[in-house]
Amino acid sequence: MKRKNPARFKFFRHSVKHKRPKGVKKKSHKLKRKRRQIAGFLRKWLPRFLIGALITALLGGAYYLIFQTETFHTSYFEVTGASKYVNSTDLKNFLYSNHENDNLLFLDAEELATNLEELFLGAQKIELKKRYPDKLHVQVTERTPLAVLTSSQYSNDYMVDKEGYVLGIVDSTAQDLPRINYVGDLKIGSFVNKDLVPVYSELLAALEETNVKVSSMSFHPRHVSFYVEEGAHVLVDNERNKFQALEVLSRLLRKLTLEGKKASKIDLRYDKVVVSY
């Protein structure tokens, strides 16, 4: 019996191809393409969707926190710096009555500070600082006495600041302040002639620089008058430069001394100096 050639059978085995059913290959390619399209779509839009959802959630939470809860509503007012000329209790009562439960996020601190300065005139400046979530700090800078006003109409003397605001009756801390004879009404918590104290300050500096000695001063709506050491009554216009006026006065007093003359009145309110003997 002849033996079969194994090489022939081997060749035959390897030459046989197993064919897939018709149409399976096409379906496989379409499925892969769909999967790639879905994966690309997800890669492109899923992060955007997640970010959008996160932003929406944050905005919704913020809206709820700000507008639907009392988290940022003012519930406490802290006042510092108010003592002598601004009543701390009155200031707090005003704030609690008018601004408690205001939304601190939308509170106009600058406008409120301006309103408070107009109401509490004893304050030179008021500053507001928001302290989240629900506190408002109020820093008061009170006015500083600059001079003492005396008047024959009143039994008491009164302290005024640089703007002419009457702070109150003179106390022990104001005994060394310069004194001004004032003609007019004096009322605590109101203003005298606002030009009065600046004129005085300018005049005081000019007197010190020119070394002119005076015994007393009086201020009037349009001029200031004082007596010099030599006894003359001097009048100076409020609008005139005080340093120039006092330099003219100083030269005139030296000239009168050299000439042995004594003036009773020196009027510096006009362009030409008027001297009376």
Would you write up a description of this structure?
It contains six helices and twelve strands. The protein folds into two domains: 76-142, Roll (Ubiquitin-like (UB roll)); 147-276, Rossmann fold. Strand 8 (214-219) and strand 9 (223-228) form a beta hairpin. A nine-stranded mixed β-sheet has the order 6-5-4-7-8-9-10-11-12, with helices on one face. Helix content is 40%, strand content 22%. The model has no long low-confidence stretch (mean pLDDT 81). It has 277 residues and is α/β, with parallel strands linked by helices. The protein is elongated, with a radius of gyration of 45 Å.
In a nutshell, what does this entry contain?
The protein is an alpha/beta fold. It contains six helices and twelve strands. It is 40% helix and 22% strand.
Low-pLDDT ranges: none
Order of strands in the sheet with most strands? 6-5-4-7-8-9-10-11-12
**Beta-strand content estimate:** 15-25%
What is the fold named in CATH at topology level of the largest domain?
Rossmann fold
Radius of gyration: 45 Å
Q: How many structural domains? A: 2
Choose one word for the global shape: elongated
Provide the residue-averaged pLDDT. Answer: 81
CATH superfamily of the largest domain: Cell division protein FtsQ/DivIB
β-strand number:
12
Structural class: alpha/beta
Number of helices: 6
N/C terminus separation: 173 Å
Oligomerization status of the protein chains: single chain
Largest sheet: 9 strands, mixed
Can you write the helix and strand succession as a string?
Answer: HHEHHEEEEEEHEEEHEE
Q: What helical percentage do the residues reach?
A: 40-55%
CATH architecture of the largest domain: 3-Layer(aba) Sandwich
CATH class designation of the largest domain: Alpha Beta
